[in-house]
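Hi F.,

I've been meaning to write this up properly since the lab meeting, where we talked about keeping a consistent format for the predictions we share between groups. The idea is simple: the sequence comes first, exactly as it goes in, then the structure tokens exactly as they come out, then a line or two of notes. No screenshots and no reformatting. I'm using this chain as the first example so we have something concrete to point to.
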Amino acid sequence: MSGLFNKVVATVGANSTAMMERAKIKTTISNFENERQQLTQLMGQRIYDMYKAQGGIEADGTILNFINEIDRRLESIAQQYEQLRLVEDNLSLVTGNNQTLSGGAACGSCGHTNRAEAVFCSGCGAAVNT
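Output, unedited:
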């Protein structure tokens, strides 16, 4: 009986720890997404202003800086999705849930690896192509 109780306590603990980690990672992802969106808007405004002022568009250092910053945010988002996958994999190991993410479909939108039976991405909600 004590062994079952210990397993239940370990499972509950692992689930709550994973839930907190997921929340932190998803908040970080959201922050990076918001920063990326703001940078994209600023870059768009800069391109629009250049177009109106010059009657055409030339890529200047400002636009290249925006592009580099957007690329950095996208890389950070991908790293956070990897951290989220590791948390989920670790939870599967602790709880004994044998449904691992390996062999699942990768999301075409965010790259998150989903369970094989997934219809929608658990990372971003987009439909998963099977």
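Notes:
The CA atoms of residues 11 and 96 lie 9 Å apart.
The two ends are 43 Å apart (CA to CA).

If this format works for you, I'll send the rest the same way.

G.
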